[in-house]
Fold this protein.
Amino acid sequence: MKIDELYIDASIQDFPATQRICTNLKGSRDIPCHIIDAPDEMYRRITAAQSPVDQGKKVLFLTRNRGRFIRQCPGTEYYTCCNYMILHVGTFCTMDCAYCILQSYFHPPVLQFFVNHTDMTAALDEWFAQPRLTRIGTGEYTDSLIWEEVYPLSEMLISAFAGQHRAVLELKTKTVNIASLLDLRHQRKTIMAWSLNTLQVVAAEERRTAGIHARLAAAEKCQKAGYPLAFHFDPLIVYPGWEKEYQEVIALLFSRIDPDNIVWISLGSFRFMPDLKPVVEKRFGQSKIVYGEFVRGIDGKMRYFKPLRIRMYRRIVEMIRRLAPGVTLYFCMEDDEVWQKSLGFLPSEQGGLPAMLDKAAARHCELYI
Amino acid sequence: MRLFFDTVPIRDIDTRDTFYKITTAEAAEITGLSGTALSASIQQAGLLSPPVLWRRPKDASERLPENSPGDSPNSRYRVVCGFRRIAACRALGWERIHARICDSAAPDPDLLLIAISDNAFHRKLNLMEQAVAAAKLSEYFKDSRALCRCAGAAGLALNPGLLEKLLELNQADGAIQEKVALDRISLTIGLALGALEKPDALMLLEIFDALNPTLNHQKEILRMVKALARLNDVTLKAVLSAEEIRAVLEDTEHDRNWKIRELKTLLRRMRYPEMVWFEKQYAAHAARLKLPEALRLIPPRDFEGNRFSFQGDFSTREDFTVLVRALERLRDHPDFIRILEKDFEDLPVK
Ligand code: SF4
């Protein structure tokens, strides 16, 4: 990880997490550090940079989460949403994927890490006290494990979730930063999850992420350590040869991972807000991903032409079901037509997508109300 | 700056020094006022608006551009504005001309602004003239807002965004500049072409010039050609050199509207093979429904949603009955069922 500049919100400069991150981050390097009362000037400098996204990936802002720590994943009405909850621990990412929606999501894009962990713990305690099953993840506005080297946030979260039985934590990552997590007491209340893609997509479209073999090796270690696992084939990308290459990575997955230990596998085809396209064109000159056969979806996002999506999903579902017939498969933000034509059933037949996933979580992670 | 009127020998004016010149050849083409017409007008009405000249310092050598030929060894004046008027008077055989003279101490940016306002207050500057003016001014103004303010006062309305585009246009290939100046292509397209490799840009320029598509069509064509080039790792020129496309472009039977339509259809088929195939299947099934002309089946936009609709025109009960019967017939029609299911053949794998 290469952080060139550190900004610290003056109001949290004495927090233990701040102190620890500063010490660990600086190590042998001398990183310029600014204590600031307001972030406006920092935001202005990032926005004014030649490439705000590149600049934003080098600047870490330690601050407090002034909003809600636990919030609903932003779904849309037309496409089926899974009612996922986000634990908002930070924003943006040190890795760099061509398709990453965060490039055009934050204005400006900036790495933030929230250090008011007492507030976060209080929010979690309150959440755990409610009599309902929930799935919560930290990997929506950032990658779940990028800060492991400098701060043991996941360790803290895994312990917190281990002490209750109503919610499951999903740590979603493209890293292999799991060494410090293997010996923790997790009580199967944390799902270790990896995004997977073909070797070609990883090599061409994902900068600074761990390779697929390394991700699966890390998943295997977590499996040995008793963690339940999940995988996300998202974004699925159509390109010449995609079928064969997804087949290869699926075979690879099940050659190392026990399907019975997989809580769910999600499938999502590449989709993006139109304003991401010029960013990808500018930052990833060789990438072809934005030149697929896209149409504007009902939520305003560009998506592959539906018959093409369905064909792709059908093939991937077939490949997975052949090797893992019992695994819970679901689509991220698709409609009934896609579900019916690709998976052969509607979420409503299983009580709705949230209930279907809650059930899978309850079974694998021993959740109960 | 001191300005005064004087009558000076034409041979003392250096018209080859175009330091302050912003008028393009295309401007004359657009205004339609040829040199001969201007001469005729001057001969009849006299020189109503005298040119503005800058008097070189006595020892002018260091302010003269290197190798400046001058129209005579004694060229004492550089033209600030009025190149065509001077040329017209010269063509009439005049030896002296009435002019406004700026003294040698006048600063260059002020003289440039005079040149701009002399043109801008008489007619609308074409985009290339605006680009030349902007580029010349930008040598003297580091702050783009200050530049825009001064240009505005001289009759050239600029904003920082437009300024940036004009400066880019000023760097573009001459062929692109010429078409922008003539308004054959828009500034947006000119800049987009300017960012391409020269052979690609020139080929597209030739096509746009020949077919004169609307701005939206130009954008659409450019977008598709660029995407196809990227997808296939070839140049834009190679995309446009495909046999089918060449056949359309070189066709001599049809008019430009047909060519534009065909070109777009071909490009779309190459760019969106799945979509075009699906639409074709849909159209074939829809045709077999044999709906009366007054009844139209409207599919969901891009086939993304699932809601189909009908649009029917009727003015009498009889018309209405025809529509209702046609709708009735559809219920069990196998093609209608496949349309609702969006159940068509897949695009054959090549
Ligand atoms: S790992 Fe995830 S969050 Fe990070 S850049 Fe890639 S897509 Fe974005």
